[in-house]
Amino acid sequence: MLQTRLSAAIRHTRIASFARQPRAIFAHQTTTHVQWQSYAVRVIDRKKETDISTYPPDLIRNFSIIAHIDHGKSTLADRLLELTGVISKTGKNKQVLDKLKVERERGITVKAQSASMFYEYNGKKYLMNLIDTPGHVDFSYEVSRSLAACQGTILLVDAAQGIQAQTVANFYLAFGEGLAVVPMLNKVDLPTAEPERAAQQIEGTFEIDASKILHMSAKTGLGVDAVLPSVIENMPPPLGSIDQPFKALLFDTWYDKYVGVVCLMAIKDGSIKKGDRIVSTHSKQKYEVTEVGIMHPEPSPTTSLQVGQVGYITCNMKSVSEAHVGDTFYRDKHPVEALPGFVPAKSMVFAGVFPIDADEFARLDESIQKLTLNDSSVSVHKETSAALGQGWRLGFLGTLHMDVFRQRLEEEYDASILITAPTVPYQIKYRDGTTRFIRTPADFPDIHTMQDNVESTMEPFVLATMIFPERYLGQMLELCTLHRGEIQNHVYIDEARVLLKCRLPMAEIVSDFFDKLKSKSQGFASFDYEESGYEASDLVKMEVLLNNEAVDALASVMHRSTSV
């Protein structure tokens, strides 16, 4: 049968087939990023609700930790939680806020997590709301949403590695939001650490006084006791008034099978408590609040949430389609002006996802809806393939983002899926003046349409930033040129490190560019990119024939220079 032959052909192409994996039953592998227990058990066993109404805005600090990947964000979060007594100092705390199985297996943060801490300083007790963010470029949307709930951020830099590409990107993301940025050097205890050189890089790149940079080691705890005092002194308290009508920004959501949709909100004005009725600005839907609380770091019920605080709200929101990240909520009959919300994430990589068993379509559809509630940067469009049947065309921010999403589907929802090779969105400009976006190679015009009706084909470009030791400059310039890149400029950030900017076709990034980058730089280069618009390009469609029939799932779009 065609399907059997196709399955064999797929395994010999760049389409990846992922086998079914048994799901282990552990709390941290549930479908949410929070370890909820049975709701009935929680109601019976939960502690008395905490009263945090005594913390006005001037005694609150909402801050995040941003850094390049593997610079120690999660380790610093662990030490701060220990310092404030949220978790015990057992010596076994590693990545406490990384609650997903995929995060622990890969050793990276893919989902921003929040935790509230109580800290006494100069005779006053402060409520400190910490948000730990991812460091990889593919999860930058998590960082941007988290910053909307903060007034300041810790910019963490590895004293041994110095400034990396994502360090620069995250700094300007926070700077653009108008946040107070407090730089800190981590891992100063390493034999290879060069804190003075790293501090000079920060001063030269971001114009921050090097003498004000805190030096510490999150792993050993050296200097960590100075972190929270620095946050209190250098970051402003949240704005807003308790006397104004309730207004809150929804900046994260997840699904719990016992209580439905859980909303993580930043309270901008007023207060909210159990029993109040709130309204969504986006849908005008009304809800009754069933529980409010803070993440401590697990859900901890409180008597109320008020201006300046960050916490979760459950309100009998049963459908995943009702929650819209960036939505503004207000108290029933007290409407307020909607907050600006977030700029929607723009998918840079698309892939087709199909159930291996067609009978699993409905269950997989529900699983994708629930998982996209927890990851709103994924775009979803249903599609049908002549060879693979009904499925979805999912949009991601990068190939790592795609692979993590695939792994979460398999591990958290016991899904058996087939995912096609990644592609980028193209534009087709027709002679009648219309423009069409192409998300899948199957939709790319055939040769006759190209000759008769198409004026030009366009592909997306990115502006890439690379930071590496000076001795690899020649190899990096050659790598960019071989991948159809246009060198913009390069500058020395110190006597030994170079920052190179280059425009590259996005299609080159999703192939093997990153692997070659690491290989040619012996692992020392770091990489970050941002969208840089579309540009006319000579694109062609390559089809694979099986028994003289074109198989849509195996088609690909590429530049003419790479097709021969």
Class derived from helix and strand content: alpha+beta
Adjacency order of strands in the biggest sheet: 12-11-17-8-9-16-13-14
Reported for the largest beta sheet, the result is: 8 strands, antiparallel
Low-confidence stretches: 1-46
- How many helices does DSSP assign? 13
Radius of gyration: 25 Å
The amount of helix comes to: 10-25%
Strand content: 25-35%
Mean pLDDT: 86
Global morphology: globular
**Total DSSP E strands:** 31
Provide a compact summary of the structure.
The chain is α+β, with helices and mostly antiparallel strands and 564 residues long. It contains 13 helices and 31 strands. Helix 9 crosses helix 10.
Report what the structure shows.
The chain has 564 residues and is an alpha+beta fold. The protein has 13 helices and 31 strands.
Topology record:
Blueprint: H1 2-10, E1 16-17, H2 39-45, E2 60-67, H3 73-83, H4 101-106, E3 113-121, E4 124-132, H5 140-147, E5 152-158, H6 165-176, E6 180-186, H7 195-206, E7 214-215, H8 227-234, E8 247-256, E9 260-269, E10 271-273, E11 277-280, E12 286-288, E13 291-295, E14 299-301, E15 304-306, E16 310-314, E17 328-331, E18 349-355, H9 361-374, E19 379-385, E20 389-396, H10 399-413, E21 417-419, E22 426-430, E23 435-438, H11 447-452, E24 454-469, H12 473-482, E25 486-492, E26 497-505, H13 506-520, E27 526-536, E28 539-542, E29 545-546, E30 549-550, E31 556-559
Parallel strand pairs: 2-4, 2-5, 5-6, 6-7
Antiparallel strand pairs: 1-21, 3-4, 8-9, 8-17, 9-16, 10-15, 11-12, 11-17, 13-14, 13-16, 18-20, 18-21, 19-20, 22-23, 22-24, 24-26, 24-27, 25-26, 28-31, 29-30
